[in-house]
Design goal:
- With about 240 residues, the chain is α/β, with parallel strands linked by helices.
- Helix content is about 40%, strand content about 15%.
- The protein starts with a helix and ends in a 10-residue tail after the last helix.
- The N terminus is likely disordered.
Length: about 240
Amino acid sequence: MNGARARTKDRPLQVLIVCYSRYGVVKLLAERIAEGAGREPGVEAELLIVEDLPVTELRSDENPDDMRRRRAVLLNQLTAADALIMGSPSYFGSMAAPLKRFFEDCTTAEGPQAQDRSRPWRHHLFRDKVGAAFAASGTPHGGNEQTLLSILTMMMHLGMIVVTPGQRPPILEHEAAPYGATAISGADGRRLPSDLEQEEARALGEQVARVASWVRRGRQAWEQSRYGHGPDVGRRRFSFDPSA
């Protein structure tokens, strides 16, 4: 086995859970999703908590170079992951502005015209990456399903492979949403997810990890049969330069 194929085989499958959480309920769901992803052998799950401030806004202790380095770290986390699971509170039936702005900042921020390496969507670096969504709203009709769809729409726009729980039996009685994991956080945003909501979050994490594993193994087999080597050689690996 050559070195590139060995690295591909030995590298843990990376599931990155990206979320914005104002009161902690969405973050708790993210933690349960990580637990579920960890049920699948050979998987590492990591949380990335989105801040209120735009990615490109300087923090109090930063200069412009510091900001570019911080942004490069985020870009590399996003593009290196085998699967992205995105979560948000439901605001007016859509994902929260900080989460949407995070992806806008990371995927469309300006870069040098001659070597525009800071726009991963131009390099199709999200294409064929596995993705899923989760959300929380204050009331049962607070817009969770529309929020899930807003996240899934962004994923489809980026060419990702969308994974959803679908309807589970008994179909007419099961309370969980078919588009992703959800929770009802209450009027003050502090109601903890129920046992069912937490288990549905774990199930989503496990499902995404399993599908991402299938996709990676299938890609390895396809590229091996077609090119004679695995994806670490045949598929361009990209690292973002903080100076870009």
